[in-house]
Amino acid sequence: MQMKSTKQLTTLAMLSAIACVLMLVVRINFMPAAPFLIYDPKDIIIALGGFILGPIAVVAMSFIVSFVEMITVSADGWVGFAMNVLSSCSFALPAAIIYRQMRTLKGAVLGLIIGWLFVTGVMIMWNYIITPIYRGFPRAAIVPMLSTIFLPFNLIKYGLGSATTMLLYKPLSHALQKAKLIEKPDSQVVKKGSFVTGIILAVCLAVVPVLVLIFVLHGVIF
Known about the structure:
This protein is an all-alpha fold. It is built from seven helices and no strands.
């Protein structure tokens, strides 16, 4: 058991390091109207980590990579850190939860599609709530940006992320198995606690922004 845990931690650290390097090296702005929206491929690696190690790995990697981003290339401080954690978890967590229960091609595709749609919806709400605070935009100016900037950005970013994750998962999984860092999926036992925890986190990601949005619209906060 200790050997298995050590291997999992090694794999988690390795994948987090790869995600950090990609985040630092590949930074693309394809929305000129919003230069603060930067595409990077870190969430692909985080989703792969979720497929290989489970939902809890998604949360751990999201915090690690987002923290490294905050202290290196991001100028948005803790707000940017929180938004990065939210977006990474919103995409990769649903995919990992579903694949954890359906270890098939169908499960992987379904998980990634749901993660893609889930993160797009969640981040629309969070951008409406948070962007005016740390960007200084009037909230009324954010409304037209939701459909013209934030929606296409997230659809493109996580659509590419979903497709790339599908392409890379099998080769990466086989390579880690050969290196004896992970076991074959058939020999892995799905931990109920991990699954339940993942479900709770995913529900929180969906419910919290809705509640905050209700408070914002009613003038209770912000």
